[in-house]
Structures are given as C-alpha cells and as structure tokens.
Amino acid sequence: MLKVKIAVFVSGGGTNLGALLEAQKNGELKSGEIRLVVSNRADAFALTRADCFGIKTNVILRKGKTPAEFEDELISLLVENEIELIVLAGFMCILSNNFTEKFKDRIINVHPSLIPSFCGEGYYGLKVHEAALKYGVKVTGATVHYVNEIPDGGEIIMQKAVEIDETDTPETLQKKVMQQAEWVILPVATEKVCKKLLEEK
Ligand code: GAR
User: Fold this and answer.
1) Does any ligand 1 atom lie closer than 6 A to the CB of residue 141?
2) Measured between alpha carbons, how far is 77 from 36 in angstroms, rounded to an integer?
3) 3-state DSSP helix/strand/coil % of the chain, to nearest 5
C-alpha cells in the first residue's frame, strides 16, 4: 500500500514520537510511514526511541549556523528522503516563513494547550502549563495544528480537553496533558492528514 513518507522533528524526550511509533506498529497509523527522525540536539532521548524501532535518525545542530543555513540542511535531508509530511513532536525551534511556505499544508505540530490559549512565541514545554495554572483555567488540553508562518497559528486539526485539579503542579499537569491528550490525538491527527494526502495524490 502507498504510504505518505513522514519525518518527525524532535528536541527532547520524545514521548510523542513514542506514541507515533507505537501507532505505526499497531496499525493505527496506516496511511503514513515514519521514515526519518530529525533532532536539533545530539542528546535527545527521542533518538534512542527511534533507534529501538529501527528508524533512521539524523542530528542537525542549529548552534553556530545562521537560521537559513540550519534550514537549508533540514531541507536537503527532507528532499533526499522524499519526505511528504513533517510532524513536529516537541521540536523546540521556530521555523521561518521560507521553510513553512516550502512545505505548505505538510507540517503539523502538537502543542500542549487548547489553542488559542497559552500559545505562540515563548510558550513551550513546561512554560505552557505554568501559564495555565497561573491564569487559573480549570480546563486545558492539547492541540494538533498545521504549521504556517504564525507560531501556533495554523489551522486546527484536532483538540482534546483535560481537567485541571486544584492540586496540580506544572509537572503533574504536563504529564496529564501528555497522557490524556497529546499521545491520544497526535497519532489520530497524523493518520487523518496522511489519509487526506493520499486521497489527493
Ligand atoms: C510536549 O508536551 C509537546 O507538546 C511540547 O513539548 C513536549 C515535548 O515532549 N511542545 C511544545 O511546547 C511546542 N510548542 P516529548 O519530547 O516527550 O514529546
């Protein structure tokens, strides 16, 4: 069966990558195939997760390069591997307009809040949950969305809500949002986008 060739971009622990790899293994992700995992950090545990599943990995460091040089390296790697969809799964670099235009409607991202709350520049990782608790919202969640030139501003594909308890800390909330929302919707949204891309072929 024809499958959409996917690259997953990571920077850290890679639990969302783990959810995608599991989904590929159990057939939940059937319209796409994870071909490549790319990290901007050499010590990202996500790389070990990819290795365990026999997926090709690549490290492209940003340090010491201009943003354009960094992105040119990414683009060469994507072209070389004939990548058709990029999934940002905890990738902590903002991509330029030039990059997002090149892969229009072919980049998706998972964000740990209900967009348009607690998103945009400066909202990443634990900071998102700190902000949600500080504001005092009673419900948060996760969003999978297309990536365009506006940070966290592209069309929403899927969202899932998570209730906040009075006893939650940023750390417990982060864990809950991952378990109850991110790891659930990222594989489903990825399959949905891959299916759509195949239908358009
Ligand atoms: C996840 O919570 C992801 O949503 C978030 O970083 C974490 C990465 O965890 N991404 C962002 O905040 C992007 N704005 P992981 O490496 O275990 O998947």
Assistant:
1) no
2) 9
3) 40, 20, 40
Residue of minimum CA distance from atom 17 in ligand 1: 15
Among 42, 67, 72, smallest CA distance to 57 is for 42
- Compute, in angstroms, the gap from residue 180 CA to the centroid of ligand 1: 14
pLDDT tens for residues 96-141?
Answer: 999 999 999 999 999 999 999 999 999 999 999 999 999 999 999 9
Interatomic CA distance for residues 15 and 90, integer angstroms: 9
Instruction: For residue 52, count CB atoms less than 10 angstroms from its CB and return exposed for 0-12, middle for 13-18, buried for 19 or more.
Output: exposed
Quote the percentage of the chain above a pLDDT of 70: 100
DSSP 3-state assignment of 61?
coil
Yes or no: say if 151 and 121 are a contact pair by the CB < 8 Å rule: yes
Please give the CATH superfamily to which domain 4-200 belongs: Formyl transferase, N-terminal domain (3.40.50.170)
3-state DSSP call for residue 126?
helix
Residue 10 alpha carbon, nearest atom of ligand 1: 16
Q: E-assigned strands of 60-128?
A: 85-88, 107-111
Contact predicate 84/4, CB 8 Å: yes
